[in-house]
C-alpha cells in the first residue's frame, strides 16, 4: 500500500500532508507559488503577516489560467494577525486577505498567535507587523473568546471552510474547545526533532484537532533571520543521526525530517526557492521510516523552542 499523502480534518475536508510554506518568501513570490503548483504542491500556507498575499494570489491565478490547477484543487491557508483580534475586526481582516489572494474562500483560516495587539488601521499600515508604527508594541484587552466568535463568523459566512489556531499552548486549546461552537480543525505549531512537544501533539489528537508543523528543519528555518539561538544550535540537516537514517533509505536529510512528522500524521509546510529541493520535499511522503528510525529521531528532543515572541517584548511571553 502506498503511503498516504493526505489527511482528513474534523470537517471532513482532505488536506495534503506536505504543503508549501510562504513565510519568508519575499522575492519573486508569484513565480515561486506558480512553480510550486506546477511541481505538484496543492497546499499553500500563507498569512497576512507574511506581506506577500497579493503576489501569492498572482501566482495562483497564473496556474489556474494555464490549467495547471483549479481553485478547488488547492488548499489555501491564511492567518489572522494580532492587531485584528477585536471581534469587529476579524471578518474585515479575513475579507482583506481574501481580496489580496483573489479568491472567494480559504480552506483554512487560523488565529496566528494567541496575542492581542492594539488595532492598526490597514489604511495607515498593512500588514501592521508587531509594533504600532512607532516602534512600540502595545497589547490590547481583546479576549480570545471574542476573537474566536469572529472566526466563527468567517466560517459561517463561507469565507473559510475550516478555522483553527496557531502557536496555542495546551491550556489555551483546552479552554477554546470548551466554548467554541465551531471547533478548531487545526493547530499549527513549531515542531522538529529538537522540539517535539509530544504532550501537546497528543492533546490535539485527543481533542480531534489536526496538527501542522512549521520550522520542520529546526534552526535552518531561522538562520536567514540571524536568530541568535538558531545560530548557536547544531544543524538538523547535518546531524549524524539524521544523516545515518537518510543514507540507509537513500533519501536526503530534509526528506527524513519531513517524513518523521508526516508518518505520524503531522502535516508539514516547508519552503524552498530551489525547484529540485522543493520537489524532494514534496516526495518525502513516498517512503516510510522504520519504527526505530522514528524513535531515534524523537530522542533528539531538547525542548528547544526557537519561535518565542518574548524576544520581541516581555508582555508577549505566551509560553512562560
From TrEMBL:
Keywords: Oxidoreductase. It comes from the Eukaryota. Pfam families: Aldo_ket_red. Residues 21-302 form the NADP-dependent oxidoreductase domain. Substrate binds at residue 112. The record marks 79 as: Lowers pKa of active site Tyr. The active site is at 50 (proton donor). One of its GO terms (molecular function) is oxidoreductase activity. The keyword Oxidoreductase applies. Gene3D superfamilies: NADP-dependent oxidoreductase domain. Belongs to the aldo/keto reductase family. This is Putative NAD(P)H-dependent D-xylose reductase xyl1.
Amino acid at each position: 500500500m502506498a503511503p498516504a499523502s493526505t489527511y482528513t480534518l474534523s470537517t471532513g475536508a482532505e488536506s495534503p500532508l506536505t504543503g508549501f510554506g510562504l513565510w519568508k518568501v519575499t522575492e519573486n513570490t508569484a513565480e515561486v507559488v506558480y512553480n510550486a503548483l506546477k511541481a505538484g504542491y496543492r497546499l499553500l500556507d500563507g498569512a497576512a503577516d507574511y506581506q506577500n498575499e497579493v503576489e501569492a494570489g498572482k501566482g495562483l491565478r497564473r496556474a489556474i489560467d494555464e490549467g495547471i490547477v483549479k481553485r478547488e484543487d488547492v488548499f489555501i491557508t491564511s492567518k489572522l494577525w494580532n492587531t485584528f483580534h477585536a471581534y469587529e475586526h476579524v471578518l474585515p481582516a479575513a475579507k482583506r486577505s481574501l481580496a489580496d489572494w483573489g479568491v472567494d474562500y480559504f480552506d483554512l483560516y487560523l488565529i496566528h498567535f494567541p496575542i492581542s495587539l492594539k488595532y492598526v488601521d490597514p489604511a495607515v499600515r498593512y500588514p501592521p507587523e508587531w509594533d504600532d508604527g512607532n516602534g512600540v508594541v502595545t497589547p490590547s484587552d481583546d479576549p480570545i473568546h471574542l476573537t474566536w466568535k469572529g472566526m466563527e463568523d468567517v466560517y459561517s459566512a463561507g469565507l473559510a471552510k475550516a478555522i483553527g489556531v496557531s502557536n496555542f499552548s495546551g491550556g489555551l486549546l483546552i479552554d477554546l474547545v470548551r466554548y467554541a461552537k465551531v471547533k478548531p480543525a487545526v493547530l499549527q505549531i513549531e515542531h522538529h526533532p529538537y522540539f517535539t512537544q509530544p504532550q501537546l501533539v497528543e492533546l490535539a489528537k485527543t481533542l480531534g484537532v489536526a496538527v501542522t508543523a512549521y520550522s520542520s528543519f529546526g534552526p535552518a528555518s531561522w538562520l536567514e533571520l540571524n536568530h541568535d539561538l538558531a545560530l548557536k544550535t547544531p544543524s538538523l540537516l547535518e546531524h549524524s543521526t539524521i544523516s545515518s537514517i537518510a543514507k540507509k533509505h537513500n533519501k536526503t536529510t530534509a526528506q527524513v525530517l519531513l517524513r518523521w512528522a508526516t508518518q505520524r500524521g503531522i502535516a508539514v509546510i516547508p519552503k524552498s526557492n530551489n525547484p529540485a529541493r522543493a520537489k524532494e520535499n514534496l516526495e518525502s511522503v513516498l517512503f516510510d521510516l522504520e519504527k526505530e528510525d522514528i524513535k531515534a529521531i524523537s530522542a533528539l528532543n531538547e525542548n528547544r523552542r526557537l519561535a518565542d515572541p518574548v524576544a520581541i517584548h516581555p508582555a508577549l511571553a505566551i509560553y512562560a
